[in-house]
Amino acid sequence: MNTYKNQPVVGLFITCLADLYRPEVGFATIQLLEDAGCKVEVPSQQTCCGQPAFNTGDFKQSAAIARQTIEAFDGYQYVVAPSGSCISMLHHYPELFDEKDPWKKRAEDLKARAFEITSFLVDVLQHSLSPSTFNSSITYHDSCSGLRELGIKDQPRQLLTQVEGVEIKEMQESETCCGFGGTFCVKYPDISNRMVGNKTHNIVDAGATTLLGGDLGCLLNMAGKLQREGHDVDVRHVVEVLAGMTDQPALGETKSTVKAG
Amino acid sequence: MNITSPDFKENARIALKDVGLQKALGNVKTGFPHKRATAMERLPEFDQLRDEARDLKNHIIEHLDLYLEAFEAKVLENGGHVHWCRTSEEAQKTILKICQEKNAKTVTKGKSMVTEEINLNEYLEANGVTPVETDLGEYILQLRGEHPSHIIAPAIHLNLEDVSETFHSHHHKPKSMDPAVLMQEAREELRNKFVAADVGITGANFLVAETGSSIIVTNEGNGDLTQILPKTHIVVTSIEKVVPTLEDMTLFLRLLARSATGQEFTVYNTLSTGPRQEGDQDGPEDYHVVLVDNGRSEMIASELREMLRCIRCAACMNHCPVYGAVGGHSYGWVYPGPMGSVLTPQMIGIEKGALLPNASTFCGKCESVCPVRIPLPKLMRYWRRNEFEKHLTPKTSRWGLGIWGFFAKRPALYRQLSKLSNATLRALSRKQARISKLPLARGWTEHRDMPAPSGKTFMQLWADKQQGQNKPQSEHYS
Fold first, then answer.
1. A-chain residues within 8 Å CB-CB of B322?
2. Radius of gyration in angstroms for the set of CA atoms belonging to chain A, rounded to a whole number
3. Contacts of B451 in chain A (CB under 8 A)
4. Are strands B450-451 and B434-435 parallel, antiparallel or unpaired?
5. How confident is the model at residue A261 (pLDDT cuts 50, 70, 90)?
6. Each residue of A100-129: pLDDT tens digit?
7. Residue of chain B minimizing CA distance to A235
8. In this predicted complex, what is the ipTM?
9. pLDDT band at residue B58 using 50, 70 and 90 as cut-offs
10. What is the 3-state composition of chain A as percent helix, strand, coil, each rounded to the nearest 5?
11. CA distance A235 to chain B (A)
12. CATH fit for domain B43-159+194-298, picks 3.30.499.10, 3.40.50.261, 3.40.50.10420, 3.30.70.330
């Protein structure tokens, strides 16, 4: 299954949140990968990456889910997800197994093949985007796991500059956590609220029409806060813009405000 | 000191509403990180030094017994004394005994977090010895009956008006809002105390094995007066502070100042090498080093070992968005912020410290600025695992995780669960694309809306698409 007519074969790791909340993110990711010459498959045995269990300290459960994910993506040349956070979790898999455990090697192997979508397009495929237009100013939130565990910072920006009409207006503290933190936002709601409040303040200050990011957890958090505060900023996953798939309304909106060209 | 770590959530709630505290915390956020970043830019090899420091610390921890014994031998050779204390209680008793032997009524103190850790002030006071804090921040806190909220800037939670009020009520002088006037007042008050003190107690930033020296770094010079003027100098510090040579020490000094305050070097770097020698102009007649273990030896053999690299620069808390929101006192014991969330459970027990390692989004900022590259999120996760295995994790979390795990390990069922959740959320949104009240996620919807799913689940649409390959794609996800 490694190559298909000389195309790289990619297993799409859809991630729970994209599956549940924003199917467009999955289709946009597939389109970006196919445009870049990949053959994309969606293994049916995948579920969650196991991060909720890992970060709650339930390593036994995390390891069981890790084994399932490793099996599901066995044989794919690459595993790509529209999330830095979930891919970071895949990169943690080797920590779940002892040195002598045969799964350790398989976890290492998966880690070497697992990439976040913007990093995969830029760092692995060195791909240039197909022409598309998005007439909007955007500001970009650097999600923590992608930024600090996978080194994703320039990749999405580099790709965004290839989209016609995009103007990037950087916000202050774009690298500061939005306060989502998985279960943190419901375990420590007051602190999380302060953190996302600081974030929306910086987003609004940046004066952009659209907020983009690479992780739906953070985006749902910031979109929900912006809407509760009554700010008129659209929130989208970056792949929607990169794939030119911005016809559908932004997160939590009923109508699309910025039309793709 | 009253431990309030089990009340972290309540502490945080109060802190978030404390207007004065929030104003003061604003200064942490803008001040320290900016200064550190500027200092780093001016030293291109900064990251290389961090690697060196990490490796050197690992080497020291590997051979800690060797370096500590070498240090002890040198101190003895120089005419000083070394006291090995396993616990806080042993350290308290040892220090009191020295004070009593000297018939000490007053001891001056330089800033030391280890003396906070062993609750020394309260113990000395209860036994008839008066401790006087001489670091300006610590002095202010002592007047107010408070503990430090930050490991290098102990009174960072206060504003100028608080200090003005405190000095006015204790010094009985006209109220002033001029920092220079307030500083002068503190100087005058402390000057007599420096001279009257029988014993001076300081901490140590590092201990040097090759010379038997201890070093303190300060920006006020109070430490020098604390250790030079009294006849007896007691250094109270912990075992992981030892470094092999003076040259090694300078590596850490360079990293410490830049990581902590953004200075290239701290203003006063004061070495003490034993008691006054013949021909010396000044210095104490008696020099004691109290080496505190307090759980550190255990850490060497555990997964927390890397925490022993910590040089107490406070960069992790200065950059932590949780610390920045709730301040140091919310953590409920001596060490706040990410480093505290790792250390506190070790020192007060995980039962009392359980909430602390959970009070992190694992954003990783702390690890990214740590001068000795301690993987703080990983170590906080170690405690979460420990809690989970000891059944300290709240029951609701365990149940939730158990149910979720049941589905997550069964892909076909997981699909059904996603489908059901998706349909429910969409129904609840009543075509408004968002939900403002969600019964089971009040923590979320109390403060923000929940965007609703934009359509069916991806997996449903993907399956539809696979079945009807001929239809145009847009039909399936609109």
1. 188, 191, 195
2. 18
3. 21, 220, 223-224, 227, 235, 251-252
4. antiparallel
5. very low
6. 999 999 999 999 999 999 999 999 999 999
7. B451
8. 0.96
9. very high
10. 50, 15, 35
11. 10
12. 3.40.50.10420
